[in-house]
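Re: that chain you flagged

S.,

Sorry for the slow reply, it's been a week of failed gels. I finally had a moment to sit down with the sequence you sent. For the record, here it is as I used it:
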Amino acid sequence: MDAENIQRRYTAGERYFPAANLIRAKLIRAYLPGINLWGADLSGANLARAKLWGADLSRANLANANLTRANLCGVKLNEANLRGAKLHLTKLYGADLTGAYYDDSTRFSQGFDPVSRKMHKFE
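Prediction finished late last night. Pasting the structure tokens below so you have them in one place:
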């Protein structure tokens, strides 16, 4: 599955794409609020400025993904892999990050505290 296919199917009304393979997908400025990508592989994907509020990204692999300036308000990111992800100026209001993994290479906005959001540091 590729980025164009996801966007086409989303526009047609489909929202459920569990375990989708979107490695290195280019979804810059994608408008996909409420999409269900539970367990999807988005490693290395570019989601800069994407609008994904209310989405389910639980257990998704977002390792090394670019989420700069993305809108992830209210997104479920439970147990997601955020190791090496770029989360500069990402909107995370109301996002559930419980059990999400990060490491020293994960880049958060200044002042963001992953521990207070119940995230786990991967050593």
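What I noticed first: The two ends are 32 Å apart (CA to CA).

Talk soon,
D.
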